[in-house]
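Quick log. Single chain, no ligands specified.
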Amino acid sequence: WNDLGLLLSDRQQNPLPSLFEQGYHDRILTHEGQLQNMLDYMSDNPRRLAVRQAFPEMFYVRQGVRVGRYTFAAVGNIALLDAEQMVAVHVRRRFTETECRGYMNDCVLAARRGAVLISPFISDKEKAVLHVALKEQLPLVVITANGFQQMYKPPRELFDACAEGRLLILSPWPYDAGRRHISRAECVALNGLAEEIATILSGGTIS
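-> predicted structure:
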């Protein structure tokens, strides 16, 4: 306001609107590399805006998407729920290293054969499967712990997959601006949801 030549007395007599758009996102940078990530994000923003404008149906936040007895908010390609085969990705702690590698390879091979992978992709090994699937442009359903703001945009690593119709993001819970961490119980619940949805869709019960 000082740059606009408005005196404090003017502002007191005539309240002025905020200089910031409502819903803007701020974050304190505490780790090395975060500043460069933010600069990259801002540099990529014009392209992301153009992509969203070109494919608005892939970024629309849908409410009330029903799968069996569950209701979700959803962003992305809802047609992925019509896949003939869906495979839940859940790497168990009890797996040996050999079992783990075999399981992860089986998940990727199933996706290469046309299955849709579904998971919250929480553990490092599940995230490794996610990264391979994204790199190979394989279809994915991601279950997230937080809901969606009205102007939600998928994270950078998921954005292009969403635009190209290779991704659906589901959330069973409403958006919480204060959410920072996911609890152990929530991890278990989300993995259970992924496995049940994979089973449900094999029977074709989608609404």
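The two ends are 52 Å apart (CA to CA).
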